[in-house]
Design a protein that fits this description.
single chain, 66 residues, alpha+beta, Alpha-Beta Plaits, four-stranded antiparallel sheet, globular, Copper chaperone, HMA_dom_sf
């Protein structure tokens, strides 16, 4: 599972927008958004770079957590 910080994901509406954007990415099988902590976990056969680019296209900065 890949984990990210997403500073702009501050509410449920933001989390829904993030989920919607990532649900369209082939290979993503699970998305867990935690707006209060601005954390995101994504599972599936997908790379961190694609997740970061997809979120940037949706208006959110994301940084992988090592």
């Amino acid at each position: 599972m890949l984990q990210f910080t997403v500073p702009g994901m501050t509410c449920g509406g933001c989390a829904n927008a993030v989920r919607k954007a990532l649900a369209a990415v082939p290979g993503v099988t699970a998305i867990q958004a935690d707006p209060p902590n601005r954390r995101l976990a994504v599972d599936g056969d997908v790379g961190a770079d694609l997740i970061v680019r997809t979120l940037a296209d949706a208006g959110y900065d994301a940084t992988p957590i090592a």
